[in-house]
Amino acid sequence: MHVADIYLFRSQKLSSAKILSTAAPLTIMAGMKLVRKIAVVQTAISSKKEARELAALILEKHLGACIQISPVKSFYRWRGKTEAAGEFLVAVKTTLGLAARLAAFIKKNHSYELPEIIITKTDAHHDYARWVAGETKHTKRANP
Fold first, then answer.
1. In 10 A of CB 57, how many CB atoms?
2. Number of neighbouring beta carbons within 10 Å of residue 3
3. Which of 65, 85, 102, 125 is the most exposed place for a label (fewest CB within 10 A)?
4. Which of 115, 124, 68 is nearest to 96 (CA)?
């Protein structure tokens, strides 16, 4: 694929210089059409019940479009001791613009004294990223 063959915004042909200066964060991945940046915000929580409750709150507030919950075994240092715990990893797909607000919401609604909150900016297929944006555009005012 040549840069000159890339089409954005309903068949508007863009040069490589225009692609680099496009306001929307777009990149190209091998074997895929155009992709956009989204954020994945993840936290670990102690029980499946708490994970589901947090996921429901996030979806209700439209802070995330898709949430995956997976059981994990965590090993970490806490207050000078090595610990191990069964936890549930909660991964939320959201827009870059909502990532910080989602992180604050998680911190406020998390049962841990110091919750893991990791924000990763990543590539997503353009159609999926557009869906994420659509599902979060009616974000309810959620006081973090």
1. 15
2. 13
3. 85
4. 124
Computed over every residue of the chain, the mean pLDDT equals 82
Label residue 138 by pLDDT band (50, 70, 90): confident
Please give the domain boundaries of the chain with CATH numbers for all domains: 36-136 (3.30.70.120)
What tokens were used for 128? 């999926």
Pairing of strands 26-28, 12-13: unpaired
Can you read off the two tokens belonging to residue 137? 């555009």
Is residue 66 predicted with pLDDT exceeding 60? yes
Are 115 and 106 contacting, i.e. CB atoms less than 8 angstroms apart? yes
Q: CA nearest 40: which of 88, 104, 96? A: 96
Q: What's the N-to-C CA distance of the chain in angstroms?
A: 44
Residue given tokens 């929307």 in the structure block: 24
